[in-house]
Design brief:
Oligomer: heterodimer
CATH class of the largest domain in chain B: Mainly Alpha
Order of helices and strands of chain B: HHHHHHHHHHHHHH
CATH class of the largest domain in chain A: Alpha Beta
Strand content of chain B: under 5%
CATH topology of the largest domain in chain B: MetI-like fold
Pfam families (chain B): BPD_transp_1 (PF00528)
Number of strands of chain A: 22
Radius of gyration of chain B: 27 Å
Strand order of the largest sheet of chain A: 6-7-8-3-9-10
CATH architecture of the largest domain in chain A: 3-Layer(aba) Sandwich
Membrane topology (chain B): Multi-pass membrane protein
Family (chain B): Belongs to the binding-protein-dependent transport system permease family. CysTW subfamily.
Number of domains of chain A: 2
Number of helices of chain B: 14
CATH architecture of the largest domain in chain B: Orthogonal Bundle
Helix content of chain A: 10-25%
CATH topology of the largest domain in chain A: Rossmann fold
Subcellular location (chain B): Cell membrane
Structural class of chain B: mainly alpha
Number of domains of chain B: 2
Largest sheet of chain A: 6 strands, mixed
Biased composition (Low complexity) (chain B): 1-16
Shape of chain A: elongated
Structural class of chain A: alpha+beta
Largest interface: A-B, 28 and 22 residues
Helix content of chain B: over 70%
CATH superfamily of the largest domain in chain B: MetI-like
Number of strands of chain B: 0
Chain lengths: 381, 312
């Protein structure tokens, strides 16, 4: 089935008085790979089920080109779906599972056999065709689920955290496999995941959701380098996120902004329009913080508290005097207790509006600081 | 696994033989033979005392006719007497349709109620209450409701739908209704739990593959439910086959509902012919086993593996 775009218009879904999903506007071009990304309970699976027709909408419309499809039953939409738990029919062989949709469509027998064989070949399971799903490994079951969904040559494939039940190694393999299938078949794919790495590596565009609302839509690169809000930054691996207050009166996106975090004056870059009065959030990635030999401009003094070996690098946690806990990635071999100077490059330190609901670094942190901590540690340089 | 094996002294001169013993103990434990088997003892004693012994005793008794004539005389007597022999047909004619209807009626209702919804607990409670009532209360209710001067007949007469009261009790139908009332909740509960053992995402997957509601039920849910239906049928059949109080209270115990248990009762407590009563009980058991055997043989041809849900 060919189409040129799938359009979600103000889609919303309420459960027992609470909004699981609100105001989702999204236009998906044919052949695109879209990832819906967010923590559990953010509404991403709700959005997918709404598109699939397994959940009725509370508001909004869904269009496939000029055809309104949100009023159609799931079996009339012609979308393929891959479930988190695979949902293979346990009493049917692999081949029968894959043929199920084709039979439902009442295709001629030779056509069914041909397309099932093709789908089996696509996922390299030709020799497992006669087995029951229970006799296959998790990765093989997932491949059957994918083959079953794509055998129908659906206009859109919906995937609901398909890799979350697999172990790390298999997950990487299947990630490549899904991407390969997407490229070779040109399937329009909507992929739900809570794993930002998975989303970044697979999708053409990402939709970040939080509390049922869209936070940001963009390419992986846009989201990674230019998150517009702190929840997006948080989700994109920005482990150092703090509530602060703005010292400059206002700053537009890309402009320099001075912030005060627990008494530290830090210079950063506004990620969106920020102004006083109003809470701001400050974020920087662990890999953007530099360990420098001597204090200088834009550095803070801190004491190393935890060091984790992670192959080529160390993940270091350092505490500043006022109790700011910074995560740093560095190749330098540090030991807990070492005093370090950390440079926070202003162009990498992003200042976001909001952030009043961020967990603040509070007093109990001080108790963890070793007693021999120098009194002046953490003073702004 | 075997704590005994680790405490075995190995430095003594008899080390070789004692380690042999330890090895044997270990090998036995691997096959599940160790001291924990003793835990089975109390249960085993109860089963032997309350089930195996009476059964074997009854079986033996059935081959010792009171009036002589060889070990099979009682069986010859039962099958040779049309009045006695007919009880088999009468009981089957009650129990098979009742069990079938119980299962058949439970499937759509349980299927409809399989999801989560408000008031499910109340609804299932109402459906299950009859199981707690007991046969005598059910029979009284049936007499009051469906008897010649019961509510149902009075209502039907009142609105002029019928001219003479319907005969719904003290015949075949009274017993049949009673079997439905007491057997349905049982079948319903079992089937509901079998259904909740089927992963609901299977139906959603079928829907996404283009299967409509009927095909989803026919091709996915029903095949996965079928083994459970067979088991439920066997259990309700056994319950119905041993029908006794309702066959007397709301049935026609001298004729159309003279079921096999009545025959056994009369032999034992009216004629005091225990061997003959045992014979009838054995015949009863063999027929039940035959029916269950046929059903389970059919069941073994079905898919009986995991169904993915929480209950399986």
């Amino acid at each position: 089935m060919t189409f040129s775009r799938l359009r979600l218009e103000n889609v919303g879904r309420r459960f027992a008085g609470t909004d699981a999903l609100q105001h989702l506007d999204l236009t998906i071009e044919q052949g695109e790979f879209i990832a819906l990304l967010g923590p559990s309970g953010c509404g991403k699976s709700t959005a997918l089920n709404c598109v699939a027709g397994l959940l009725p909408l509370s508001s909004g419309r869904i269009w496939l080109d000029e055809k309104r499809i949100d009023v159609l039953a799931p079996e009339r939409r012609g979308f393929g779906m891959v479930f988190q738990n695979y949902a293979l029919f346990p009493h049917l062989t692999v081949r029968r599972n894959i043929e199920f949709g084709l039979r439902m469509r009442r295709l001629p027998k030779p056509e069914i056999a041909r397309r099932a064989a093709q789908a089996l070949e696509l996922v390299h399971l030709e020799d497992q065709a006669g087995k029951l799903p229970g006799q296959l490994s998790g990765g093989q079951q997932q491949r059957v689920a994918i083959a079953r969904a794509v055998a129908l040559e659906p206009s859109v494939v919906l995937m609901d955290e398909p890799l979350s039940n697999l172990d790390a190694k298999l997950r990487l393999e299947m990630r490549t496999e899904i991407r390969r299938l997407h490229q070779s078949l040109g399937l329009t794919t909507i992929y739900v995941t809570h794993d930002q790495e998975e989303a970044l590596s697979m999708a053409d565009r990402l939709v970040v959701l939080r509390h049922g609302q869209v936070q940001q839509i963009g390419t992986p690169e846009e989201l990674h380098s230019h998150p517009v809000s702190w929840p997006v930054a948080d989700f994109m691996g920005c482990r150092n996120l703090f509530a602060g207050s703005l010292l400059t009166p206002a700053a537009d996106r890309g402009e320099a902004a001075m912030v005060d975090v627990l008494g530290l004056r830090i210079e950063g870059t506004a990620a969106a329009h920020v102004e006083t009065p109003g809470a701001v959030a400050v974020g920087i990635r662990p890999e953007d913080i530099e360990v420098v030999p001597v204090p200088g401009p834009h550095t803070v003094d801190a004491t190393v508290s935890v060091v984790e070996y992670q192959g080529r690098e160390f993940a270091v946690e350092a505490l500043t005097g006022p109790g700011l806990r910074l995560h740093v990635r560095t190749a330098e071999r540090l030991v807990p207790g070492d005093p370090v100077a950390l440079r926070l490059p202003p162009e990498r330190l992003l200042v976001f509006p909001g952030g009043a609901d961020l967990p603040r670094p509070v007093a109990p942190l001080d108790e963890e600081i070793t007693p021999d901590l120098p009194a002046d540690a953490g003073a702004p340089a | 696994m075997t704590t005994a094996a680790t405490t075995e002294p190995t430095t003594e001169p008899t080390a070789a033989s004692s380690s042999d013993r330890a090895g044997l103990r270990h090998r036995l434990a691997e096959r599940g033979i160790d001291a924990r088997l003793l835990l089975l003892l109390p249960g085993l004693v109860l089963v032997i005392a309350l089930f195996v012994y009476p059964f074997v005793y009854g079986l033996g008794l059935s081959f010792q006719p009171m009036d002589g004539g060889g070990p099979f005389e009682n069986y010859r007597r039962f099958f040779g007497d049309a009045f006695q022999r007919a009880t088999i047909g009468k009981t089957l004619w009650l129990a098979l349709p009742a069990a079938l209807l119980n299962v058949a009626a439970s499937v759509p209702i349980a299927y409809r109620l399989r999801g989560r919804f408000r008031g499910k607990r109340i609804l299932t409670t109402i459906l299950v209450i009859p199981i707690t009532l007991g046969t005598v209360l059910t029979a009284e209710g049936l007499l009051n409701f469906a008897g010649p001067s019961g509510w149902l007949n009075r209502a039907l007469l009142g609105i002029g739908l019928i001219d003479d009261p319907l005969r719904l009790v003290n015949n075949y139908w009274g017993v049949f209704f009673s079997l439905i009332i007491s057997g349905f909740p049982f079948a319903f509960l079992l089937i509901l739990s079998y259904l909740s053992g089927i992963d609901p995402s299977l139906e959603r997957a079928a829907a996404s593959l283009g299967a409509n509601a009927w095909n989803r039920f026919r091709l996915i849910t029903l095949p996965l439910l079928a083994p459970g239906l067979a088991t439920t049928f066997c259990l309700t059949f056994v319950l119905a086959f041993s029908v006794f109080p309702s066959a007397i209270l709301v049935g026609d115990p001298t004729d159309s509902t003279r079921v096999i248990s009545i025959a056994a009762y009369q032999a034992a407590y009216e004629q005091y012919d225990y061997p003959f009563a045992s014979t009838i009980a054995i015949v009863m058991g063999v027929i039940e086993l035959a029916v269950i055997g046929v059903v389970l043989a059919g069941r073994s041809r079905l898919y009986t593996g995991t169904t993915g849900g929480k209950g399986a």
